[in-house]
Structure formats: structure tokens, C-alpha cells
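Notebook p. 47: complex prediction with 1-deoxynojirimycin.
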Amino acid sequence: MRFLILAFIFLLPQLVNAQKKTIDQRLDSVLRLMTLDEKVGQMNQYNGPWSATGPLTNDDNLLTQIKEGKVGSMLNVTGVARTRELQDLAMQTRLRIPLLFGQDIIHGYRTTFPIPLAEAASWDLEAIERSARIAAIEASAAGVHWTFAPMVDIARDPRWGRVMEGAGEDPYLGSLIAKARVKGFQGKGLGNTDAVMACAKHFAAYGAAVGGRDYNSVDMSLRQLHEVYLPPFKAALDAGAATFMNSFNDLNGIPATANKYLQRDILKGQWNFKGFVVSDWGSVGEMINHGYAKDNKDASMLATNAGSDMDMESRSNIQNLAQLVKEGKVKMSVVDDAVRRILRKKFEMGLFDDPYKFCNEAREKEQWNNPAHLDAEKDMARKSIVLLKNENQLLPLKKAEGQKKIALIGPLVRSIKEHLGFWSYDWPDDSTRITSLWDEVQKKVGGDKLLYAKGCNINDSSKAGFDEAIAIAKDADIVIMSVGEARDMTGEAKSKSNIHLPGVQEELIRAVTAMGKPIVVLISAGRPLIFNWTVDHVPAILYTWWLGTKGAEAIADVLFGDYNPSGKLPMSFPGTEGQIPIYYNYYNTGRPATSDSDRFYRSAYIDFSIYPKFAFGHGLSYTNFNYSSVTLSSKSLKGNQKLTASVIVTNTGKYDGTEVVQLYIRDMVGSVVRPVKELKGFQKIILKAGESKTVLFTITTDDLKFYNNDLKYDWESGEFEIMVGTSSKDVKTAKLTWNK
Ligand code: NOJ
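Predicted complex, C-alpha cells below:
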């Protein structure tokens, strides 16, 4: 027996190699059989005939083209029946190469999870991985092979509508979340029927669009690119992301789609990425609009030569690439490399062995309404809620408050769909799987003492409903207001120049607050909004993002103390659009302002605060956490020693609670200027009322590294500040020196 085990351990690597070789050999033999046209077909992806997530070019007979081997992949085709129907066509091609079906599974497939930005507020990597896992289980059961997620773009600009899809502004948190999501989607690995291929997007720097306007240009130093925008991509790659998507923007004048530096030098060169790169929707052809390509033919040449392997929807490859090869403008080896990358994934997914591997009606049915997934969704939703403010411990409301009258006011009180957010499954209006806040508060306190008024719509100027809202507020003992954005106000192509609470909602809050009742405001949105009057006058505010299928239940649990909130903001909340871009890890400048009254020849605004309304990492609990000062294992370190920094965190309140203890580091003097602080660690801890815990962080020189002016990633000797606290704004600090 022992011998057998030893033999197995010894032979395992060879077996794995043999397996790999088999794929390589099979790839070689398929490639040898393929005509140039068939190869180009693999580098072409079309949108399906049923729904679209971009501007359509429905000019050709799609189905015939699939049969002719002109299509390697389809997007927006889901469901076993439809994927089977199209796979049947692919099986009529000469070489029977299976299609890949891709879809934007951004926050759940059928079970709708909180939007990614909300999930990021949980700082809970396990829960985030589980959410992606469930999305993959449901999507793969519906015939989907590939999700266009995670979006790992760093976003420092809440005007940009796509902030909802990412993990916020921080490269460290963003990298950990990117990893968790890739692991979740790909599960135990490609080839399992419940694993979908992940796609790290949008490569790269798409989140830094000038003015926060979607699809806009990006201009940034290579150092910033490497330090802030690329790390989450690298993390996704290290976690095994099967594919990457390039992006719509140009980066320093070169469209990302045809950017050799990004795709060939970094991704496929330095990082040794073995998967394939898909373009974004139409982004190959859009290089004509950029003024970078003369026509589609030029665009196909530029994109392919730069390392873009598959053309999503622009038809540039299918119409031109074969000719470009014949003219010697694109080398056959370049095409072969792209096709090999694409086919490798089809092999790894097991589609060559069974093209219908993901077409199992029984599994699809089983996953369509999986109750366990709803429980996980609720857990994720509760973890995502951020308590922004809670004066005089107004929250949680006692369930005995049911004896009193509660007025529920606002356009989102009875809404169901708005809480699902952009990129979500379109549940029918009569679905019983989703409830409203109204339903859930009733369940907590009984219906007889509840009052309701809508007050106003989400986004118009009518105040016709104000009187009714004021009247019920007068009559009530407590007011809960549910306001925010409609689900289509933040997302792709939903950039805004004005990110204040839309319509007359804040005026409604003012009018209702004037009644002098205790008032709680819930804000549901896909991005950080501005609601300064509310912040300054309303005692309790919960940021409830777009929480998905079980959002209302999660909110009610938090309102009535069945769950103690622990979310922390993954993005700074500005006080005015004029502060944007706003982020916590800024450079100090030569004339830093030390406060808002320090403006004389300082780096400040003369008309507004320099500080965010809510800082990155901010989020309260119903209990209070006290932080001791920071204890360092040494104040002077050398070389590759390790440092431990510890704090004692005490729950001084009367509720059990969860706290995200955050570690930031500042390098005081560098060969290039360094941010005032950078997140380098965090721990989510649970403390019973009255309990204390020592939280220990181990810091190594890796945590001190940065890209210097020559783009060398290293650390430098000198003085450092170690900061530990409850948010980026509220930290305890200790200093040390660390020399080489
Ligand atoms: C365009 C978006 O930028 C991208 O993220 C998405 O995956 C594709 N459309 C497909 O829907």
C-alpha cells in the first residue's frame, strides 16, 4: 500500500505532464487540420440573437456563419436550450470545433448578489468567493462557459458609472477581491461542470477615464499604471484567470485594444499569461473612431499584432484577417498563437470531449431556484451594508417599536427591481422570490402600525407627494426613508456629472426631517452619491447599495438589530463633484493643508473642504471599538527581518460586533514621492460585548516595495509609519526605521 502511495506521488507530476501533453498534442493536430479561414473564425465572437449588451451590427446571417465555422464564441446566449441549439450548428462544421458561450455574470446569475462594489464593502474575501462560486454554479448549469468578470478596474471617480462593477479605489483590497472572485468563478478548475472561465477586465486603466466619462481617454504615468491600476490584474492572473478582456479606452494615446505594451510586453510577456484576450464589444472596430486605425482591416491588423486574440462583435477579424495574413501584414504564427490560446481553453473546459457538457436540463432546473443560494445571498447582502452615521444610537430600532407608529417614506420603500442593480437578471414583476422593504419591515413589527408614503419619484421634479409624506411623518413616532438611484442610473455608459441624490429626494428628506421625528435614511445606489444635507442633519444613515434578491430582508435585519452592520467603504465619498478624483492614498504635495482652515497658499480649495464626506474604510457598528496604541516588535529593522505590529481592540459597547481592523503604511521619504498611507493588510474580527482581542500584523519588506522612477519594484531604507485603525481616517500610528 505504502509503495503504491509512493509510486502515485512519484508519478503524479508525470501524469499531469502527460495530460498537458495530450492537450498540446491535440492542439497541434487540430491546428494542422485548420484552414486559415477556420482559424480566423475562432478569433471571432458574435452576440446572440436574443439580447444585447452593446450596439448591434445585425447585418449577417449568424446561424449560417456558425455552420460555416466562422464563429469561435458567442455572447449573450444562455440557457441549455439555446446553447444546445447553437452548439448543434457548430457540430455541423467541418472540424466540429465547439463554441464557447460567454456572458456578463457580474453579481450572480439568477440569484442576484449585491453589486460588486457593495460586496467589496464587506471586506469578506470568503463571502465574496462564495458569491462568485454560486454565480458560476448557476450560470454553468444554464450552459454558460465563461463570465466577463471580474471587473478589476481601480476606480477613483464615482462619476464613472462602472464603479459599481469593481472593488473600489484601492489596489490592495482590489487585488485580494480579484483573486477571490476568480477562485470563486473557476472553482476547482476548468473542466469541472460547475466552473466558468473568469475574465479579468478591462485591461487596462479603463477606470481612469478623463472626467469619469465612460469610454473616455486615459493618460497616466507608467508608474501609476503599475502601482495602482495593474496590481488587481496581476492578482487575477495569479489566481488563474483563464481570460482577459482589453478595454475601450486609449492609454497614453494608444487604444488598449491595440496596445502592444499592455498585451504583449506585460500580459503575455512579463506575466507569462497563457490564456487568451478578448476585445471589448466592438473595440477593435472602434479604433477607427479613435483615429488610430484607417478602417476595419487596419484595426484587425493592429489589434491582432498587439495581442488581442478574439474580436467581440466588430467583425474586423472575420472580414479581414485572412487577407491580412495573405498580404504578410499579420504573421501566420501570430494567428496560430491566438487560435492555440482559444482552443486550449476549449480543451481545458472539456468541450472537445463533450460539446454539450454544460447542457444538462436537470441540472439547469435544479439550480434555477436553489434556496441555499438565497441564504448565501442574504448573508452577503447583510455584510455589504455600511452604517455611515448613528447619532445617539438611534439604530437599531427595537422590535417593540412595533408598538409605535413607523412611517416608511420614499420612492424605494415598495420597489423591488431597483434593488437588483445594473447587470442583473430581469425578475418578473410578480416574482415572489424578491420582497420589498415594506414587506420586510411588516414582518419585523407587524403591519398595523406602519404608514407609507412614496413622497416623490426617484428622478423627477414633482413635489406633489410631499404633503402626504409630511402628514404621515407627523403622525408617526419614527421615520424610515428609503431613497437612492434607479437600477439603470449607474452602470455601463451611465456616467454622471452630477452625483447628488437624484431628483427631489433630498428635498423630501429635508421636508420630512422638519417634523422633528427620529429619522433613519437608507440610501440604495450603485455608486457613492452626494447627500450632504442628509449627512449633516439626519441622525442615522445606512448605505445599502444595490443588494440583490434578498436586499430588503438584509436591510430589515440591520434596521431591527438582527444583524450588526460591519461594512466599510471601499471608495471615498466626495462632498462635491469638484473634489473628484478623490482617494485616500494621495501624495502629500509640497504645500499640504493640515485642516480646512489651513488654506493660505496651501493645496486646498478656497470654497470647499479637501476631505471626503466619508473616508475610505469608514463604517460604523452598533457597538463601539476602542483601539490601543500600536505596539511594534522593533523600532529599528534591518534587511529582510520581519516586523509585527499589534493593537488591542476592545468592544466597549453593548452589542457583539464585527470590526475590520485596517493596517496602513507610509514610507516617509522615497526616491519618488509616496502616498500618505497605503492599505497593506486588514483583519475582520468578531468581538463579543466587552471582549478584547490582540490583532497582529506581520509586515515584511514586500509590504514596503513600490515602483521607482525606473519602474523597478523594490523598497528603500528609511523611516516608515505604521498605522492601524478603524478607517483610513481614524488610525493609531507608530514609527520605525528599516534599513537595507
Ligand atoms: C461592454 C463592456 O465594457 C464589457 O464589460 C462587457 O463584458 C461587454 N460589453 C459584453 O457585454
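Notes: The CA atoms of residues 198 and 241 lie 5 Å apart. The chain has a mean pLDDT of 95.
Next step: compare against the earlier run before touching the bench.
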